Backbone:
């Protein structure tokens, strides 16, 4: 039975208590059998049954649950560096979208890309994410916007799930924006999403249905229709909400008991309160805030209202072209005034809750998956304060080493 000893700080991140409670244990040990944790606690309290096991030495480092990126647009083709420069020169996200760029630029590239190429490209991203300590990833469609291309993205996620090592959760985001061929036939596109794509997505293993509620995307009424159909097919609702302007997305998320509402840069106080009452997770995406130069999501208001806040990357080729979840965690501290402890819990157990995996991952407790990351830092605060390209020296998923880099170096 594997045993990891001499852990300087073991952040168990149990779901109980406030978001600031990461239930850290000093001078700790962690044991697992096969793919499940069997014991976690102070090394001084290690049960006798484990004392004869061959021990691995953490050398006083920090150990955290495997990180959970609960909002990505993983499978896409092409990049949009030209838009990065255009925004710096003063064009807005909406300006670029109206000129045919933005999401539709990626749609054109992705429609022309085979499922094999999408899988190969995504595997490369996932490997880099694993090196950062990311062990579970939510993956959205939304760059097909036609039946065949949307299903191709879902097929890519199904294939990737079989390849490992990360746990993947697929989300249908066919309602990302209205494709050009349906610009004058919005209702026909909504019918395609509701009548064709939602049932097929459920068959292909999608867990969630998402809608981008925004001026250049879908209205509240359209989102309600799509998400209600998704619920009927077994897909839990998610929303891209209140990202670019106040739009009532947070209130709709509460009304539909969505798993999460994401972005929320312009969420109203009433919307935040409603989400808290309904148990909807607020997902902070500070990389998008940084790239778009926007006002940060009011994370402190959410937390003070009793609304759990997850932290994710929004990895996509336009508004958040980075899968570096630890960087997003740092930005949640500096831009949104979340404490390091709140951010860690937001990228572990709260993020797991946002994608329905909190019964399996997100905390280090007996019976849960043996997914964890070893960080070359004495504690959580030091890790996020002293930002480095990558402080993760070991990633374990399901009890198996995925990435070890100088883990035994003093």
Residues:
């Amino acid at each position: 039975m594997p045993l990891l000893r001499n852990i300087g700080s073991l952040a168990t991140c149990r779901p109980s208590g406030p978001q600031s409670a990461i239930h850290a244990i000093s001078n700790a040990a962690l044991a697992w059998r096969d793919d499940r944790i069997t014991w976690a606690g102070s090394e001084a309290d290690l049960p006798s049954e484990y004392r004869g096991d061959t021990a691995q030495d953490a050398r006083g480092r920090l150990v955290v649950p495997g990180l959970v990126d609960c909002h990505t647009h993983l499978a896409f083709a092409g990049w949009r560096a030209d838009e990065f420069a255009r925004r710096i020169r003063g064009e807005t996200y909406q300006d670029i979208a109206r000129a045919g760029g933005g999401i539709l630029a990626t749609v054109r590239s992705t429609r022309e890309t085979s499922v094999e190429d999408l899988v190969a490209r995504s595997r490369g991203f996932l490997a880099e994410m694993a090196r950062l300590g990311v062990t579970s990833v939510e993956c959205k469609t939304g760059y097909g916007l036609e039946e065949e291309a949307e299903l191709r993205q879902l097929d890519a996620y199904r294939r990737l799930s079989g390849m490992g090592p990360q746990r993947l959760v697929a989300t249908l985001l066919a309602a990302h924006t209205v494709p050009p061929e349906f610009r004058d036939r919005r209702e026909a596109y909504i019918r395609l999403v509701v009548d064709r794509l939602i049932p097929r997505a459920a068959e292909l293993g999608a867990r969630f249905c998402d809608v981008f509620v925004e001026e250049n995307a879908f209205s509240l009424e359209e989102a309600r229709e799509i998400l209600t159909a998704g619920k009927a097919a077994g897909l839990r609702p998610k929303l891209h909400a209140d990202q670019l302007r106040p739009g009532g997305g947070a209130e709709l998320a509460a009304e539909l008991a969505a798993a999460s509402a994401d972005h929320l840069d312009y969420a109203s106080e009433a919307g935040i309160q409603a989400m808290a009452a309904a148990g909807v997770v607020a997902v902070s995406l500070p990389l998008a805030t940084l790239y778009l130069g926007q006002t940060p999501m009011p994370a402190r208001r959410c937390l003070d209202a009793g609304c759990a806040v997850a932290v994710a990357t929004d990895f996509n080729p336009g508004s958040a072209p980075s899968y570096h979840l630890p960087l997003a965690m740092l930005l949640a501290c500096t831009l949104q005034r979340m404490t390091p402890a709140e951010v860690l819990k937001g990228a572990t157990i709260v993020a797991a809750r946002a994608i329905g995996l909190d019964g399996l991952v997100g905390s280090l407790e007996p019976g849960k998956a043996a997914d964890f990351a070893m960080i070359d830092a004495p504690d959580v605060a030091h890790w996020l304060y002293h930002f480095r390209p990558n402080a993760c020296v070991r990633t374990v998923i399901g009890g198996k080493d995925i990435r070890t880099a100088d883990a035994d170096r003093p």
Observations:
- DSSP finds 15 helices and 16 strands in the chain.
- Residues 143 and 276 are 31 Å apart (CA to CA).
